[in-house]
Specification:
The protein is of the alpha+beta class. The chain folds into 3 domains: 2-94, OB fold (Dihydrolipoamide Acetyltransferase, E2P) (Beta Barrel); 97-186, Nucleic acid-binding proteins (OB fold (Dihydrolipoamide Acetyltransferase, E2P), Beta Barrel); 191-276, OB fold (Dihydrolipoamide Acetyltransferase, E2P). The protein has 5 helices and 15 strands. The protein has helices at 2-15, 91-94, 96-104, 190-196, 269-276, and strands spanning 22-29, 36-40, 49-51, 71-80, 85-89, 110-119, 122-127, 140-143, 164-173, 178-182, 203-212, 215-221, 224-229, 250-259, 264-268. Strands 1-2-3-5-4 form a 5-stranded mixed beta barrel.
C-alpha cells in the first residue's frame, strides 16, 4: 500500500505543474547515459525531475555542467503523470532570452535574416529579430533538403554568405536552441510552375537521367523529370530499357499525364515517334 500511496502522492505533486513552469531542486544522480535526475523542491521522497543530456546546456559539455548535490533551476518541458516524472530543460533558464524568442515563433511564419555560415550539413541564418546564439553563428538553421526544390551539388549553389533570405519557420529545435527553417517553402515548387504551362499531348525534348527496370526517367525542364514506362519506350516489346536508350541520351517524348497532387509527370516516347512519322 505504501508504494501505491507514494505513486499517488507523486502524481498529485506533479499535477500542479504545467509545461513552461520553472522549478528548482537538487541534483540526485548523474547517470552514465547522461542527463541528471532531480529531487524537486516540495517532494523529497524520490527524484521526480529529469534533465536529458541534450537539455543540460547549449554551450557547455554536458558532463561538466552539473554535480550531485548542486541546486538547479529548469523549465518543465513535459509531464508524465503515469510514470511520475517531469522532463526539464536547464538550457531554457541558461539562455532565457533565446528560449523565450524561439517559443514565441509560430509554425508557418516567415522569418528574415542574413546567411551567416554555410556548412556541409546546412546553413546558419542570423535572424533580424532574434538574439545571438551562444554557440552557433546564427539562431536560424536550414538543413540541406530545405534549401531548394531543385537539385544542387552544394549549399553554396543556392545561397551565399551575407545573402538576405526569407524562410518559413518549421520548428523549435530544443536540443540545440535553433529555429529550423525552410527556404524552399517560400518558393513555388518547380513542378507546379511547369504544370501551369504544360498540357497532355504536348511534345518535349528531354535527356535520359536514370534507367529502372520499369522504364526510364527523362528530364524535360530544369528540375522536372518524368517517367517513360517500359511499354512506352518503343512500339516493339522490350525486356529492359538498356536495349533502347542510355543515360544521357536526348529523346523526344509526349506528355500523357500530369498529376499535380503527387507532382508526377508521365511521358511516352513511342507516341512521340508516331507523331513524327
Amino acid at each position: 500500500m505504501g508504494g501505491v500511496s507514494g505513486d499517488e502522492a507523486s502524481r498529485r505533486f506533479l499535477a500542479v505543474f504545467q509545461v513552461g513552469d520553472r522549478c528548482s531542486g537538487i541534483v540526485a544522480e548523474v547517470p552514465r547515459r547522461g542527463g541528471v535526475s532531480v529531487i524537486l523542491d516540495g517532494f523529497t521522497e524520490r527524484p521526480l525531475g529529469f534533465v536529458g543530456p541534450l537539455d543540460l546546456s547549449w554551450c557547455k559539455f554536458p558532463a561538466a555542467t552539473v554535480e550531485v548535490g548542486q541546486r538547479i533551476t529548469a523549465e518543465v518541458t513535459a509531464i508524465d503523470l503515469e510514470q511520475g516524472q517531469a522532463w526539464l530543460s536547464m538550457a531554457a533558464t541558461e539562455n532565457a532570452e533565446l528560449w523565450a524568442f524561439l517559443k514565441s515563433l509560430r509554425v508557418g511564419g516567415v522569418l528574415s535574416g542574413r546567411v551567416a555560415s554555410i556548412e556541409r550539413f546546412g546553413v546558419f541564418v542570423a535572424l533580424d529579430d532574434g538574439p545571438d546564439h551562444p554557440v552557433f553563428p546564427g539562431v536560424g538553421f536550414i538543413t540541406i533538403p530545405e534549401l531548394s526544390w531543385r537539385r544542387f551539388n552544394t549549399a553554396s549553389d543556392v545561397v551565399q554568405v551575407g545573402q538576405r533570405v526569407s524562410c518559413e519557420f518549421l520548428q523549435f529545435d530544443t536540443t540545440s536552441g535553433e529555429a529550423r527553417l525552410s527556404l524552399r517553402a517560400t518558393q513555388p515548387h518547380p513542378f507546379q510552375t511547369f504544370a501551369d504551362g504544360a498540357t497532355v499531348g504536348q511534345t518535349l525534348q528531354g535527356r535520359v537521367t536514370k534507367l529502372v527496370p520499369f522504364g526510364v526517367f527523362v528530364q524535360v525542364s530544369d528540375g522536372i523529370e518524368g517517367l517513360v514506362h517500359l511499354q512506352e519506350l518503343t512500339w516493339a516489346p522490350v525486356e529492359a530499357p538498356e536495349g533502347v536508350v542510355q543515360v544521357g541520351d536526348k529523346i523526344t517524348v509526349v506528355i500523357t499525364e500530369i498529376d499535380r497532387e503527387r507532382r508526377r509527370l508521365v511521358l511516352s516516347r513511342r507516341q512521340a515517334s508516331a507523331a513524327l512519322e
